[in-house]
Design goal:
The structure holds two protein chains of two kinds.
Chain A: H1 2-26, H2 36-47, H3 65-79, H4 84-95, H5 110-144, H6 154-167
Helix pairs in contact in A: 2-3
Chain B: H1 3-32, H2 35-64, H3 71-76, H4 83-90, H5 94-114, H6 124-145, H7 174-184, H8 186-198, H9 203-235, H10 245-251, H11 254-270, H12 274-296, H13 303-308, H14 311-332, H15 349-381, H16 389-412, H17 420-443, H18 449-480, H19 484-494, H20 496-520, E1 523-529, E2 534-537, E3 540-550, E4 557-569, E5 572-577, E6 580-584, E7 592-594, E8 596-599, E9 603-612, E10 618-626, H21 629-646, H22 649-659, H23 662-667
Antiparallel strand pairs in B: 1-10, 2-3, 3-4, 4-5, 4-6, 6-7, 8-9, 9-10
Helix pairs in contact in B: 1-2, 1-6, 2-4, 2-5, 2-6, 5-6, 5-7, 6-8, 7-9, 8-9, 8-12, 9-11, 9-21, 10-12, 11-12, 11-15, 12-14, 15-16, 16-18, 17-18, 18-19, 18-20, 19-20, 20-21
The chains are: A mainly alpha, B alpha+beta.
Chain lengths: 168, 668
Amino acid sequence: MTRKYLIIGLLILLTVGTAALEIAIANPINAQELPPELKKRALGIEQQLLCPQCTNKRLDVCELAICDDMRRQIQQQLAEGRTNDEIIFFFSNRYGQRVLAEIPRRGFNLFLFAWVGASFLIVGAGGTLFLLQLRRTGKKRHSATTNTMNGQSEDERWLEAELTKDEH
Amino acid sequence: MNVTATLGASVLITALASSSFATLSAIYGLQKQNNRAILASQRAIVATGALTTLALFSLAFALLSNDFSISHVAEVSSTNMQPWMKWASLYSGQPGSLLFWTWSMSLLMTLFAKTTLRRMPWGTAHAIAAMGIILTAFLMALVFFASPFRINPVTPVDGQGLNPLLVDPGMLIHPPMLLTGLVSTSIPFVIGVSALASGRVDTAWLRHARLWALASFVILSAGNFLGAWWAYTVLGWGGYWGWDPVENSAILPLLPITAFLHSAVVQERRGMLKGWNLALILTAFALAIFGTFNVRSGLVASVHSFAQSEVGPYFLVLLALVVATSLALAIWRMPLLRADHDFDSFASRETGLIVNTYVLTVITLVILGGTLFPIFSELVNDTRITVGPPFFNDTTGPLWIGLLLLMSVGTILPWRRASPSTVRKRFRSPLAMLLAIIFALTIFGMRNPYAIATIAAAAIVIFVTTREFYLGLLHTHRSGKSNWLSAISKLFERDRQRYGGYLVHLGAAVIAISIISSSVFETQVRATLAPGQTINVGKYQLTYDGLRVRKPDVNGIEQEVVAIIDVEKNDTVIASLQPGQRFFSNFASQPVAIVAIDGNLLRDLYVFMQGFEPNQTAEIQAFIKPLIQWLWIGGAIYILGGLLAFTPIRQEARVRDKTDTPENSLQE
């Protein structure tokens, strides 16, 4: 008796479970029903990713089918409770680093930042040295030629006039 | 036999012969002191210009007569394209753009040969030889690697049509402007090379180079603005500049040209920076070649497409030659490049101008590095990466703000030396204003440090520049007893370069405010809507009324699907927008966005449709971009300033040539 009920109960449970599973598979979590804060997070993630096919096109504004798919996956993964970083990591694993809008600041990529630093340093230091040297030679020559400078050239006079014009 | 193609191809070969002759004859004339040979070489340059024009006309004729036996015509044109749209086909695709490059360059060189060349007797032959070499290099590419007149093995019934993205009125003016801008850097380059080669590295070359560099600056800037406007209104992503490798290639040559225009003033006034000026002008042309090579070779997409391209390796060699020749010439003439005036004080306009060129140089290097790095990464590290906008914004952002600050500092400081009291007097009110603006912006709730810094720095530029205009006007008004209107024109007459330059600064400040407000304070909303549903964007309510299908049947467009959207604010309809997608019969997988904008001076409401379903649901994206229209207004002010600075210099130079300035008579 008890055994019979148990079997029937199990059978019912199995049917309901399979049906529920089938419904779940047929209707994945509907993207449109994401709560607003998740939608906002989805947009944020999309803005950090690029289309894997276009050059430099942000995922949130790309109209290719592959990007539509990626956007749907982002929403699904958000609904499953994954974090932003996990989702971004998922896509960079799948399509490679080129889908990251922001270049990761590690490994080989550090060479790029070294280049930026070197540009600042070389132009800055070189420029300052150049100005300092220009000033030093200028002073030296200035003291050597003070006497002859009394008879101003026409050029100098023109310059002087320009200067006073500036001062008004 | 195809007559048009045969004519076009043979004309190109003749042009190649003509430019080679120009080169050889100029070198011969220079060595034997033979003026007739030099004159002949000059005429050969003009002939090359005429011949490439004939080649361009041949291609235009082939396009207009739908001659699909020519493969270039079949690739970029089709029977149902409107004739005016075929102008865009002319310079699209590799051979077409290369022909346009060469044509535009040969015309500029002809103009140069007919005008400026006569006024630089010290370097005529050198300049012609340099032009001849450059023309020969490009014509060789056209004749041997990328001829626009290649014949199809089988003539197709109809052509493919223009790439969907290019089917837009904006494409009729942006690419020619940009290409001409890139090409125009060749003239200052030629002047610089002749100065170095002939040893006349004083101010004689500088005045001519400055005129042509200014022209280059105006055309290249206009090309970039038009490109930004096209991207904004056509590409459908809500932006106008994406730090794409192609965009970077377009802005790179502009930076050294801008730096040159500033440091040239220092050399003209103070006799310093001779070597630096030459370096900047030579770099600009090298970067223009780099840009062409970068875009044309497909290197931007991937190293692999570069390997498949025919002209890619050729341009790489050309670029290497330009750099090597420039370096060799500069090293050879190093002893002549000493400063012949004194640098008096760090508190001077010179410092502002010089530091400005340094900042522009760093920006150039950073953008160049960022553009090339993906290639290195793929070659050396075997990883494909993207250097996206965040990198460029983070690294160059502070530098752009620095440039804004320098615009004010340079304008405030006098030449040579400012006494501490002058410095105090002149900086007092701008500094007070700067602090007041920062304080006010913070009080009003602005928290983004970039936005605060940019707006404050730009506001000071506007203040300082307006003050300068006002003081100048006051001076002219009082001294000349003229009315205000004629005082304005007198002001520009007195020193057009200076006041034109100030106008460019004013435009740049307006642009800076627009860029920062439209990006930092942007609102972006996305929704999938069924007919009748609404979304809110800021204060606006967008109601979606369903899809409409249009069939324009021109330019290869198969159909356009647009969403009808009513825009309401406070329950009143203020606009009806129709964003959509455009489908092309020959490019089924490449629909193009139709952007709809409701704009005013305060904000643009920018809407595009990302996708739609057969059941009429549409995916809509909407942006509110504050103050974005000021980007175009600022651009117009900027270009106007450049034009004002440009036009009158020629008269001024003529006057100066006659009266002869002392520096000139000393050198002769």
